[in-house]
Amino acid sequence: MIRSKILSTGMYVPPKILKNADLSAFMDTSDEWIKQRTGIEQRHWVEVGTTTSDLALEASLAAISNAGIKKEELDMIILATLSPDHEFPGTACFLQKKLQVPLIPALDVRQQCTGFIYGLSIADQFIRTGTYKKILVVGAEVHSAGLEKSTSGREVTVLFGDGAGAVVLGATEVTELKSDSYLYSTHLHADGTYAEELWTPSGTGMKEKDRMTIKQIENGAIWPKMNGKAVFVHAVKRMPEVLIEALEKNELKIEDIDLFVFHQANLRIIDMIAKQFNIPEEKIFNTIQKYANTTAATIPIGLDEAVRAGKLKKGMLVASAAFGSGFTWASAIYRW
Ligand SMILES: CC(C)(COP(=O)(O)OP(=O)(O)OC[C@H]1O[C@@H](n2cnc3c(N)ncnc32)[C@H](O)[C@@H]1OP(=O)(O)O)[C@@H](O)C(=O)NCCC(=O)NCCS
Q: Is the domain 183-335 a CATH 3.40.47.10 member?
């Protein structure tokens, strides 16, 4: 039976690092507040002029090289981001141009922190049906250009970093369901009731004469807004829920999972999930301390780092779960 399998991973973060204390230069915050509330110690931010598709390109080239394939073998590009290069066309098209692989389909996924798992799920459907054999799935973000870098934006701004992660998903013939390497299942959800709990109020379709107005700039509608407590409360409910859904679907127990690579918005959310399921610390791979929340890039960056750190090895059973703006939430279980 044809299933999909992660053939390789790749990642890229821009070189410039901002420690928590560096943010105090333009807002009233502290290393202590950020570390205590979120676990974040630093983040990478691009220099002005570097775009999401630039970061995506570097991560994609690494994933393609690690897969030992030629970029011309790709059948499709899926790119998840909440920080597109432009309102349109999609950032996947800009990545395609930079990768120089014209004609194959290029699709943007706009599911924020859950975007990578949504992308993986879409790619999986194309591979399971035999439509495509190799799909590049990327999560990439340049948050820094879209954050309000002053005290009024501090609750959101301190949480986010720039970066990109990519995988090549390929078709594989599975004969041993319980031991072959493949993507077991993905589980996707959304509840738009909460769309305005974490969002950017301005944009296309506003009840304004023009898409962008001076008023929107002056009243801060161009910056992301977050109801942090609501996000927290929903995240600690939905991530466990969707993890259980994935385990039940595959008749697995939490102890069967060798490694958890979660979306990481806040270390406290991950700690609460670990406590709830009694997951030992060494089974959870976290990168938020170094990279902050890189939204759609968090999980593929985590996978690539885990591979390179020797923590993710062939044959291991891996679970991922994510929660984010939308609200959206999702999970995936795969054998490496
Ligand atoms: C944002 C978050 C870290 C805030 O933590 P919290 O424990 O709820 O914060 P508290 O309510 O204890 O503290 C809020 C206070 O800190 C202040 N504060 C907010 N951001 C701050 C910052 N960066 N530095 C210093 N102080 C800050 C607030 O102004 C508020 O001050 P006040 O009490 O005088 O009004 C937390 O709500 C969170 O992580 N939510 C989820 C966020 C998330 O996951 N987002 C991404 C989704 S994918």
A: yes
Whole-number Å distance between alpha carbons of 157 and 28: 12
Task: Please give the distance, rounded to the nearest whole angstrom, from the Cα atom of residue 262 to the centre of ligand 1.
Answer: 21
Q: What pLDDT was estimated at residue 208?
A: 73
Query: Which residues does the chain have with pLDDT short of 50?
Result: none
CATH 3.40.50.300 fits 2-173, yes or no: no
The residues spanned by each domain of the chain are 2-173, 183-335
Instruction: Judge whether 113 counts as a catalytic residue.
Output: yes
**What is the 229 CA–ligand 1 centroid distance (Å)?**
8
Q: Whose CA is nearest to atom 38 of ligand 1?
A: 228
Is 93 a residue of the active site? Answer: no
18-51: pLDDT as tens digits: 999 999 999 999 999 999 999 999 999 999 999 9
